[in-house]
Amino acid sequence: MPKKILIIEDEKILGEMYRDKFTQAGFDVVWADSAEEGMEVVPDVKPDLILLDILLPRASGIGFMEWLKKEKELSLIPVVAFSNYDEPTTKKEALRLGVKDYLIKTNYTPQEIVDRVKSYLK
Amino acid sequence: MIPFFALNQILIVLINALAILISVLVLKQNPKGRVNRILVLMTFYMILWVNFAYIPRLIGKENPDLALSLLKVAWFITPLFFTFLYFLVVHLIEKEKKYSVLGKLVLFLGVSIAFITGFTGLIVESIRFVGSYMAINYGPAMLPFLGVVTFLIFATLYTLFREYFKASTALKLKLQYVLIGIFIFYLANIIFNITLPVFFDIIRFYWIGDYSTIFLLGAVSYAIVARQLFNIKIVLTQALVGLIAILLLAQVATAGDWLDFSWKFFLFLLFLIFGYLLIKSIQLEIKRREELENLTYQLETVNVKLTSAYKKLEKLDKAKSEFISIASHQLRTPLTAIKGYISMILEGTYGKLNEKSIRPMENIYQSNERLIKLVNDLLNLSRLDAGKIKFEPTLTSLEDIIKDIIEDLRITVENKGLYIKMKEPKLPLPKMMVDQNNIRQSILNIIDNAAKYTKEGGITIELLKINDKVQIKISDTGEGMSKEEMEGLFQMFSRATAGTQLHTEGAGIGLYIAKKFVEMHKGRIYAESKGKGKGSIFYIELPIK
């Protein structure tokens, strides 16, 4: 069974890129372009891991994490934050809310992100 | 010695003159002011009171009926004067509702008792003479009259004290003057106009009570007219010293013989000296206190300004940090897309790449990496500059960090035809408390720098344990450096000559950032080179924690 991954990414170019890469790497990919859409699909999709952007229109990635923490059944889904927003307070807040890692997108190739995700799914 | 009646005449003239002067000054200061108008009206009443109480004593024996009528006018004015004093205080503090219940009661009782006094014989019944002094036969309503006057006194004091403690410093000082005037006026009236004549039939001091009104009006007028009030303590001291000096001078004037005169004059002079010194010392004390208060006030003002400026700066600082974070986010997004797509094209995600296209693609990838590094360095630099980078150590294996960096850079370095290798440590190294991100960035910057200035050979990284330190030794077979170049190596925007000649990449901030991060760990960073063309060795030394 391929692993299900939910990518929450508002930048169309990046969203398509990561979707292509993870699909090619054998993942079952669901892509949401806002935190709200993410909240909508998580209960149905029940992904094995969520790749979460932080700077999103309206609700941010932090807002998504706060919501996820309150959802009993879903709160155990591992989340990896990936963002180009490198702000220490936000980073700290995301880690406090339980993200496994806070990756700066620009420092990793999509393959490296796939490798990281695989290591969290082991 | 001046006969008493003559003295009384002088005092009457003096008081009348003073009263006119007060009226003029008060009206001049603010002709439309309510307090000023009440004060002028009270001065007018005082003139009537003092004169109409004085004249009957001159003409009483010859014309007792006229004397009684005039006296009744003076007595008619007395409760009105007390009533106006109440309203003067009310308007001075400007807080009391102008038509409060107390105010209405004061007005009603004051006016009623004035009319009863002036137009009936219930209070002042008739006059009689005891020797040369005129005495009054009081009517049956004398006690209620005293009751009303007492009520007026208490109403005034109550209103004054109720607001006094809440008043501003300036108003407080004004009220202090009013209080002194009221105190003298009430005390003199209670003793010389009420207690002594009514209860003890002593009438020869009545004038002190009457004339004390001038102190009241003088003090209140001064409080209103003067722009800057003297401290009440100085005024009281001066008044007291002046009074004692006059009494001592009177003693000198009435001295019996030369010996008595000399002794009293000596005492008088001595008192003048000590009095002068006393006033000076109080003036000095008050001046110092005022200076201190002034300084405290200035300090408080500066404090408030500083707090506000600090808050503004904090706000600006926050806005600046946010701007930098957002700006770097915006810069990084397209760089991420370029990096991601090129790497995927090179990996064959979109099909096998044409042989001829591989090199240009790799060049695009490398150029993009340089841009990413530049954005990262600038972000780090602005945060270092703002003191925003926090030191967050975690237990970390330096070996793992270095291996990770080598893997990241391997393709880039090998593409240049160079080698990159790590010499395994002879002894296993302990895990250390270091800030992973910062140390990784420091080592990365040095290796990146070494790769930049090496055309042949490669880079070797060693990890050594020296006493209580771990040394990271990064050697390259590159251009090497002259002594002069090494001096400014870790300064911002510094690039070796080779750098300017061979490479245009890099802004010269990588080594500066590395140095700052190493210093956060209380470590040391330095470089050695045997000279041009002989390669360089960079050292990072970190204390084992």
Q: Structural class from helices and strands of chain A?
A: alpha/beta
- Assembly context of the chains: heterodimer
Rg over C-alpha atoms of chain A, rounded to the nearest angstrom: 13 Å
Query: Main interface pair?
Result: A-B, 22 and 25 residues
**CATH topology heading of chain A:** Rossmann fold
Mean pLDDT reading of chain B: 83
Question: What global shape of chain B is seen?
Answer: rod-shaped
Strand order of the largest sheet of chain B: 4-6-7-9-8
The CATH topology of the domain at 4-229 in chain B is Rhopdopsin 7-helix transmembrane proteins
Question: How many strand elements of chain A?
Answer: 5
3D structure, described in words:
The complex is a heterodimer of chains A (122) and B (545). By secondary structure, chain A is α/β, with parallel strands linked by helices. Chain A has helices at residues 12-24, 35-45, 61-70, 88-96, 110-121, and strands at 4-8, 28-32, 49-52, 79-83, 101-104. In chain A, helix 2 (35-45) packs parallel to helix 3 (61-70). The mean pLDDT of chain A is 90. With 545 residues, chain B is α+β, with helices and mostly antiparallel strands. Among the domains of chain B are: 4-229, Rhopdopsin 7-helix transmembrane proteins (Up-down Bundle), CATH 1.20.1070.10; 391-543, Heat Shock Protein 90 (2-Layer Sandwich), CATH 3.30.565. In chain B, 69% of the residues lie in helices and 10% in strands. Chain B is built from 16 helices and nine strands. Chain B has helices at residues 4-29, 34-59, 64-93, 101-119, 142-164, 169-200, 206-211, 213-225, 232-253, 258-347, 355-385, 398-415, 436-452, 483-487, 497-502, 510-520, and strands at residues 124-130, 133-138, 394-396, 419-423, 432-434, 458-466, 469-476, 524-529, 536-543. In chain B, helix 2 runs antiparallel to helix 8, helix 5 packs antiparallel against helix 6 and helix 10 (258-347) runs antiparallel to helix 11 (355-385). The longest helix of chain B has 90 residues, at 258-347. Chain B is rod-shaped. The termini of chain B are far apart. The interface between A and B is medium-sized, with 22 and 25 residues.
